[in-house]
Amino acid sequence: MLKPFLPHLQRLLRFLGNWFKISAERRRSIYVEVKTGSDPRLNYYLLLLLSALITTFGMIADSPAVVIGAMLVCPLMTPIFGIALSLVEGDTSLLKSALLAELGGIVLVILAAFLIGISPFSFEMTHEILNNTSPTLLDLFVAALAGFAVCMATIDERLSPSLPGIAVSISLTPPLTACGLCFAFGAYEGGMGALILFMANFLTMLFVAGLTFMAAGFIPGSFSMHKMDFARRFGPALISMIVLVCFLTHAMVRLIEEKNLVAEVRRTFQQELTDVQNLEIRDITLDRSQDGKEWNVLVVIDAPREPSPFHLREVENRLQTRLHCPINVFVQTRITRNVSASQDKLIRFYRSADGIEKVNRPGKDVQILNVAGQIVRERIEQLPGMQVTDIELRRLPNGRKVIYTTLQGAIRPFPGGIKRIEEKIQSALKDRSLRLVARYIESYDVASDGINVEGLMPDTTTRNTPAEHLQQRAMTEIRRLASLSPQAVKAGLVEGRWIIVAEISGSAVMTSSQARTIQNALQSGVTQKVVFMAFSKAEAMVSGEPLE
User: Is the Cβ–Cβ distance between 492 and 458 less than 8 Å?
Assistant: First the structure.
């Protein structure tokens, strides 16, 4: 099976041999270093155990820095060089000790992580664990390049100082640790994925190290005399690596498919949900059914309201048409609202790759909602007890855009006020075709003694303040009307105007002319505009017997 590759391999080794020209003394020194590092002594296992524990706690804490630090003290790489060198030179003694050190190290790391994982402490899956459970062909390429760099640093004395930095790029302890933790958590599929990642790195490094050692002249005699020996020694490792390459290629194709699906889901959401103000997609999670024919998609979004089932059905239909497979879409919405002092400042911020804050102005529909929402809130929420609970943009069959807003409070909006807000929106957006429609939900704050007038105003009053003075004057003016009695009065300065709200009872309901008379009386001596409003109710005493 390997015969067709041997001539090409021979040419590659001759090319590398011209590059790696080292003395016999240096080869002897490397052999001694590798053999010493491949000896499974107590110090070797102790250092490996420390590396495994550091890696395990780093993964549990989800700390990449700790995991990288543990990789610097991991001695698993030297026995791999020992196995490669023993296969090149036919050294049975070195092969046995290196295999014992490597296999013992693998079992030790997995067992240490497993024992920590089943401890009574509450541990959860972290990104550092998950990153080591999904190997792809890219991991194989990284292992090959890193393995070649480590071999160069080992052979060439001038590059030896950079060996610790290069060793960090070779992932040996992390996948074994992730394997042990996954087995402890009952995630057997993830544990097998981590073990496959380690085997891919191990076989790739073994093959690259063997080629490098042969190119450096470690093989006795000429290469042409030992073709069959090479095939016999490295054949099983090469065949195993070819099998892993096929598996990892399949995994990489699947990963690319998932990336494309995520991009398509993101693009479809942005196209179909243009009427949702300030929608931001935070996360997209994919889950394929066991038969591989159906996708479940969970999308986490930030938005001021939930998207309707109708819109989600449109998203599903669009995705199924584009991707030609059944897709179920689930949305998790985090309710958020963007507010600024001026509607002109409602723009999105994001951090670019060069670290500079830049702005990205939203699309036309989102801009309409931003401006309209800001204007509606400015006009409505300055009224006592009123709030804007929702605002959305709809497009009528004739193409006309209508802004629907939901208002809640104790003061019913009148068409004239809605008309003024609509005109202000049209002026700000320079679009006279826009319509504003308000839904009104009547609500009161009710206390044990009636309507909670105190809750309608900001608590800005203290003793002997202008607000308290206006409250006293309002109560006096109300009492002058023989049929009415004030139950509670609250005054507050809102947007440069004094708003006075009163709860009144009596034998008749207060009329508009009476309220206007009281407002004019309160305006006297006050520079700011005064607005008087009242909750008025009629009360009467009724008895079954005539009153004497």
Answer: yes
Are 387 and 240 part of one and the same domain?
no
Q: Same domain, yes or no, for 408 and 460? A: no
Smallest CA-to-CA distance from 229 within 448, 485, 6 is with: 6
Q: Which two tokens stand for residue 177?
A: 């640790």
Residue 406 bridge partners (DSSP): 390, 439
**How far is Cα 153 from Cα 167, in angstroms, rounded to an integer?**
10
Q: What is the mean pLDDT of the chain?
A: 77
Report pLDDT for 416: 77
Instruction: Give the domain extent around 473.
Output: 450-538
> Residue 378: inside a domain, yes or no?
yes
Specify the amino acid at residue 265: V
Averaged over 219-244, what is the pLDDT? 59
Give the three-state DSSP class for 287: strand
Model confidence pLDDT, tens digit, residues 432-466:
889 999 888 877 666 555 545 545 554 444 445 78
CA angle 306, 311, 314 (to 5 degrees): 150
Tokens of 2: 């390997």
Question: Widest CA span of the chain, in angstroms?
Answer: 135
Please name which of 271, 344, 346 lies closest in space to residue 304, comparing C-alpha atoms. 346
Residue closest to 438 by CA, chosen among 423, 418, 410 = 418
Q: Buried b vs exposed e over 355-379: b needs ≥16 C-beta within 10 Å?
A: eeeeeeebeeebbbbbbbbbbbbbb
Same domain, 220 and 304: no
Structure token pair of residue 464:
């002997």
Q: Which helix (H) or strand (E) holds 178?
A: helix 173-185
pLDDT tens digits along 417-439: 888 889 998 888 888 889 999 88
pTM for this prediction: 0.55
